[in-house]
Amino acid sequence: MKNFCKLLFIICIIHTMTLQAQNNYPQNYFRNPLNIPMQLAANFGAVRSNHFHMGLDLRTNSQENLPVVAAADGYVSRIKVERYGFGNAVYITHPNGYTTVYAHLNTYFEQLDGYIKERQYKDEKWEQDITFSPGQFPVTKGQTIALSGNTGGSAGPHLHFEIRDTKTEECINPLLFGFNIPDRVVPTISGLYWYDRRFSTYEPGANGIAVKKTGNGYTTDIIQVSSPEISFAVKAVDKANQGFNLGIYHAELLMDGQLVYSFSIDKVSYDDTRYLNGCIDYTKFVRDKMSIQHLSTLPGMRLKNYHSSGSTGIIHLEDDSIHTIEIILKDVNGNTGKLTTKVRFDRNSDSVALTDKTVKPDEGKTITTENAEINFSKNAVYDLMNFKMSEKPASRADAISNTVVLQTSYIPVHDQYTLKIKPGRKLSADEKSKVVMLFDYGSDTDAVKGKWNGDRVEGEFNRLGTVVLVLDESLPSVSASWKEGALITSSALRLKGTTKVGDIVSYRAELDGKWLRFARVKNDFVYVFDEKCPKGSGLHTLKVTTTNTAGNSNTQTFTFQR
């Protein structure tokens, strides 16, 4: 009994030390930024397209315009107004060394909103990124700073909330700060995958293993692998008490009781968040919409503060013995899900060979075809890739080059690479000024105004797919939601923007000769009536000038009554 009590005491000490290590952030210093109970639609570290989710998405009961309050005393140090991304956002710097961020807002508190509006009219620019000194807009804990919304890159009403280290600007997992969000639900595991690591996780790719629920855990049939060097990945979610699919906070991989690999998602900087693509099976994510996280480190993945076991996670099977594999998943509250299985090296097989076009981590590479050239930096890839690049006839009537095929959109690239393409015919100076590089990623497209470098057009990209040079002589346009000269009784004017190629990259609206503040909402332009256009002020003339990616501009005039 004495020895048992001693052992129990040691276990309690270890548990306490673990909690202290995890919770070396101020507890209960920050309050809930909403006046309703905190319910999560997404947590810190959840998998997103090309980035980790960097904060908490707090539910607003599918409503907009709920009061958003300061999580602690401090001052408004920055605001952003942008079309995508955060939309309308407030940054509050606190005296304890942290900054909180509140995003997708509809409006700011009155004094701040007035300041921003004045700045927009002074700059004649809707998008803003303004920093403030400590004495300009001080706030107290619980003070209303904005109303919640659905602006920017938001897909539905909610509040995005972040906590950052003020000095380093690293985003820290807000759940480490002691917010009261009840959670007794363990992470669930729905898939297990193994990879032949003699060459790359991309070739030949994932081998799926069916997962079975057994009692309080999970298992699989014995895994027969055909390579002596393997790694694992897991498909799992944490539903917490809210039922949303949240990301995994902590994972451990053990073989025969020995820790092989582990990760925790405590903090990430925006400079490093794209390394998410080296932490997941990117092919499965893009092609199959599945979030599968590696339990190993890819050679080109350099995310700080993530991998903590001191091992790459690659398992070397030197015999045909059966080995026990354990995968343990935990949330911040310690709720634990576990998968136990066995693995055996069954037979050897041919591995993928290097080619003269293999792109490697830590090595730059230039690859060419007859009319195109691609230049990768040493940070381009996370894992080995036998790069395939080719040309084929373009199918677009406005194309002036072959379509260049760059591998596949299912393989990630970490940083910007340079691509040069030679057009199929000589162009006049005017035509050259209207050439656009049109990229097709399969699920979406992107257009870039390339630079001329000799007889080739050059651009920078960070995704793979197919690209073609397009001569865009079309004009962008906007269409009004009212008839000419109509009396407007609604609270706002709305214009819809369209382009043939690319995007509307700039716009200017003038009401009776003076700049008017139109907000950019996705592809729409919205002006909410204010003192610049009062009721009963007669017939107004609205002049709108838009410019597309190619640089073509179009000026349109509309009239209305107010």
UniProtKB/TrEMBL annotation:
Keywords: Signal. Coiled coil: none annotated. Gene3D superfamilies: Glucose Permease (Domain IIA). Residues 1-21 form the signal peptide. Pfam families: Peptidase_M23. Residues 52-109, 133-167 form the M23ase beta-sheet core domain. This is M23 family metallopeptidase.
